[in-house]
Amino acid sequence: MSDERPSMTDCNMITGSHDFTISGGQFNVVHGNLTQHITNVSSDTSNEPQLLSLPPLRCPSGLFSGRESYLQDLHTHFIDNPSPKRKTFLLYGMGGIGKTQICLKFIEQNKECFSDIFWIDASSENSIRLKLEQIAKAYKISAGPSSAEAFLNWISSRGSWLIVFDNADGGHKVVEKFLPQGEKGDILITSRNKGLSRITSPKNSLEVTEMGEKEAISLLLKSSAFDEESEKVKETAKELVSVLGFIPLAIDQAGGYIQSCGYGLDSYLRLFVKHRAQLMSNRELSGASGYDYSTYGTWDISIEEIKRRACEGPAAQASAAQNALMLHGIFALLHHENISKEMFRCAAENYLLRKTEIANGLPQCIVFLDPKSLFLDEQDEWDELQFDAGIQTLQSFSLIKCNEMLYSIHPLVHAWSRDRIPQEDRVQMCRRAKALVASSIKPDYDDDNFALCALLALHVQALSGNMTNFKVQNQYFDDEHIQNWK
Questions:
Q1: 3 state SS of 89
Q2: What digits encode the pLDDT tens for the residues 323-382?
Q3: Please, which residues have CB within 8 angstroms of residue 35's CB and are 6 or more apart in sequence?
Q4: Where is the NB-ARC domain (predicted)?
Q5: Residues 6 or more apart from 471 whose CB is under 8 A from it?
Q6: Does residue 139 contact residue 49 with C-beta atoms inside 8 Å?
Q7: Are 271 and 277 in contact (CB under 8 A)?
Q8: From residue 221, how far is each of 69, 238, 427 by CA, in Å?
Q9: Smallest Cα–Cα separation from 14: which of 65, 56, 74, 43?
Q10: C-alpha to C-alpha distance for 410 and 416, rounded to whole angstroms
Q11: Element (H or E) spanning 207, and its range?
Q12: Which of 4, 156, 390, 437 has the smallest count of CB within 10 Å of its CB?
């Protein structure tokens, strides 16, 4: 097979067809559906398998809006680049941000530039292997447990194909096991984990972030089937996409609800303020993207995986996951921006200075803390490495962002993390978070302490509001540090 990229005239587009290969000009039944193109098909009776595009590629959402900069970056990297060597690229970002849809749109726009396209569910090592074995079976390359490797070996010297590893949210080593050898073909990866850039290089990695305001409004009006574009509608749409955090999945899901229930935008906005958790958790109205999970559901997947690691993972991974869960719970009750590592360090140091007073039940802002929530090691010292391990775990799922030891959370992700706190845990978690903030304030007012107190002001307000919403008594801690709280 030629290694040159085929022109559109070389490609036979077969859409909506099912269960076949082509050999000797005849259709033969195989596993799965086929919605992509087949190239260089002839009546040659050779027994060598023909390259197909499997598994079937679904089309991008018919409501796809904007994201032009990402599509252009992919086009520049894969299409405009004349290098014959393999090109790899990573799109990473939080769940629901539109990584998969961008890839599908890129393929739709540029499918004639690849001889073959293979879409792999890379959510686990098992899912990758299963897809590759299905493809190998369809090509009649080999059978048995080694069929995935046989296919990778076979394709490594053939064609200008593209393999998409979608939802590769595990470590980079999982995907590396299934990369064909050699320089043939291209690789595109989507992941919540920026760490996959170890495969593609940081230069060939790009974070997918929130939609711009105009494209977000366009998506909302399309998904809700709103024909009217009066100034009032546009203003309400502007407010609604803002509370939805400019996240494509959330906007698409909201539009589906508005259309199916016959709501006006203003009516849905009022409903969202009151019933956010229920609306964002509803899988029945996941919108036109065909995504399998609701907005909240896609983030639930991340936290459930962290919980699994905390219980079942190797010792170091389990410890990091446990630390991540601790941080996740505390962060949920603070303000979503400017969460400082220094706050945790200072709270730990103050706890160690005053823990002898705990026997007397005072001060309460120390009583409600414990070595685990303060990341203290066995020598009663603050363990920065354990803290960092928890942070890195949260970052690997794109649940937080880090900038010079200040952490932030997307507002809607932050709301989800708060909405998911079990009723029975709310009192304890509020007290722990409040005690942590109160204990991080030193009695001496040097410049560093003043800077930290300035950061804490928003967290104090957020905590007070959350305690009120959770109906947790906002009691006074009988400690001199808490004067800064009032």
A1: strand
A2: 999 999 999 999 999 999 999 998 898 888 877 666 665 566 666 778 888 999 888 899
A3: 14, 15, 16, 17, 56, 57, 58, 59
A4: 76-228
A5: none
A6: yes
A7: no
A8: 21, 11, 41
A9: 56
A10: 10
A11: strand 205-207
A12: 4
Let me know if 99 is exposed, middle or buried by CB neighbors in 10 A (0-12, 13-18, 19+): buried
d(CA 148, CA 199): 20
**pTM, rounded to two decimals:** 0.82
> Across-strand partners of 118?
163
Q: Are 55 and 49 in contact (CB under 8 A)?
A: no
Rounded Cα distance between 385 and 158, Å, is 46
C-alpha–C-alpha distance, residues 65 and 241, integer Å? 14
Give the Cα separation of 113 and 67 in Å (integer).
Answer: 21
Greatest Cα pair distance, the chain, in angstroms, is 89
Comparing CA positions, the residue from 191, 212, 252, 193 lying closest to residue 400 is: 193
What is 8-207's CATH number? 3.40.50.300
C-alpha 341/C-alpha 404 separation (Å) is: 10
Write down the domain spans for the chain: 8-207, 213-293, 299-484
Segment 274-283 shows an average pLDDT of 91
- Give me the residues paired with residue 190 across strands: 91
Pick the residue with more confidence: 108 or 145? 108
Q: Which residues contact 320 (CB under 8 A, 6 or more apart)?
A: 309, 386, 389, 390, 392, 393
- Please give the mean pLDDT across all residues of the chain: 82
Asked if omega into 82 is within 30° of 0 (cis), the reply is: no
7-21, 131-145, 378-392, 444-458: range with lowest mean pLDDT: 7-21
Tens digit of each residue's pLDDT (9 = 90 or more) over 400-439: 999 888 999 999 999 999 999 999 999 999 989 998 998 8
Distances 91 to 77, 127, 193, 407 between C-alpha atoms, Å: 12, 20, 9, 21
